[in-house]
Amino acid sequence: MRKNLLYALCCVFTLGISACSNDDPNPDPDPDPIPNPNPNPTPEPDKDPESLGLFVLNQGNMGYAIEGSLTCFDYATASAQQNLFQTANDRSLGNTPQTAVAYGSHIYIGVYESNTIEIINRWTFEEQKQISLADAEGQSPRSMVAKDGMVYISMFNGYVSRLDTLTLEIDKNVKVGPNPDIIAIRGNYLYAPNSNGMDFPNYGTTASKIDLSSFTATTFTVGLNPTQFASNGTDLFLLCKGNYGDVASKVYRVGDDDSLAEIAEATFIAIDDDDLYYINAPWGAPSIAYKKYDIEDASTEDMLADGGVESPAWIAVDPIEGTIVITSYSMDNGWASYGTDGYAKIYDEDGNLIKQISVGVGPVWAFFNTYNLD
């Protein structure tokens, strides 16, 4: 199935191959709107899992009064559409959206500074509900993951919250450590890295492990400044960002006993069934490394066939197609620009560039329009 995506996209690009050129890091946005990607989108249990496209969540920039936005890249039309939320709802998405997940018939979006959860229709992007967190126990949404009819949300004020997708209400909260960042689920446990990022330079050294049955948490010790867990359901990895100085950012494999084994220096990670993908782009480094780590045999190879992006903002891997997506800030006089539109490069599973698209300002999160996926 993964090869089918590459074949289809290559057919579309035959007359416009320059769109994939490395010589054009900031192409014009695709002009045509995307129609409903699936006129009958209800998942059918007897069909194989399918991935229809990619979403990029752009956080904007409060300092420049740029609010967040949502970009979609549709696999079928090989085109991108900007500002999906605002176009569908005639209002802004809000300040600094940080996380989102497509699950069931909805997309759930956590908007950090506006302190809301936006729930929109997965196919029309029209608002279904806005949850204000102003008076909630958990506030300032940072990341999301979904399982068994629930969306779990790390809240930067020190909680993990559970949202019931039937009632569209947050029904439980559990206290974890300070400033929990990007969460993941392995088996029946959710893992939250307690970054303590709001207490610079006193970064955290703990993570919380939540039993999803009882929704209770325990804590264990990890590396300095834990910021992201990544899991394929069985294997678990943790990114610890260090102190941005003499303690390097590293990725660790987390054992069944929650022990840590160092894998490599890295600043961004993503995972699929067989491989861990990581980027190492520490501040001031003369070059950026893109690597793929084979989880079974612990071998490492280069991830990409080209030179990658200029200033990585996020990496994600389509769990069905194997598509690798790396978002980037644009550059201005040799520096990353945090006030202008960024871009995303889309690669096949072998690291060959398929497409480059323009996205919004601050493309800090990417996720996929998959369904019939366990």
Q: What characteristics describe this protein?
A:
374 residues; Methylamine Dehydrogenase, Chain H; four-stranded antiparallel β-sheet; 2 helices; globular
Give an overview of the whole structure:
With 374 residues, the chain is mostly beta strands. The chain has one domain (2-36, 47-371): Methylamine Dehydrogenase, Chain H, CATH 2.130.10.10. It is built from two helices and 30 strands. The protein has helices at residues 2-13, 84-89, and strands spanning 50-58, 69-74, 79-81, 97-103, 106-111, 116-121, 127-132, 141-147, 150-155, 159-164, 169-175, 184-186, 189-194, 206-211, 216-221, 226-231, 236-240, 250-254, 260-265, 268-271, 275-280, 289-294, 300-302, 312-317, 324-328, 331-332, 335-336, 341-347, 353-361, 363-371. The chain has a four-stranded antiparallel β-sheet with strand order 3-2-1-30. A four-stranded antiparallel β-sheet has the order 4-5-6-7. A four-stranded antiparallel β-sheet has the order 8-9-10-11, with no helix packed on it. The longest helix is centred in the N-terminal third of the chain and has 12 residues, at 2-13. The protein starts with a helix and ends with a strand.
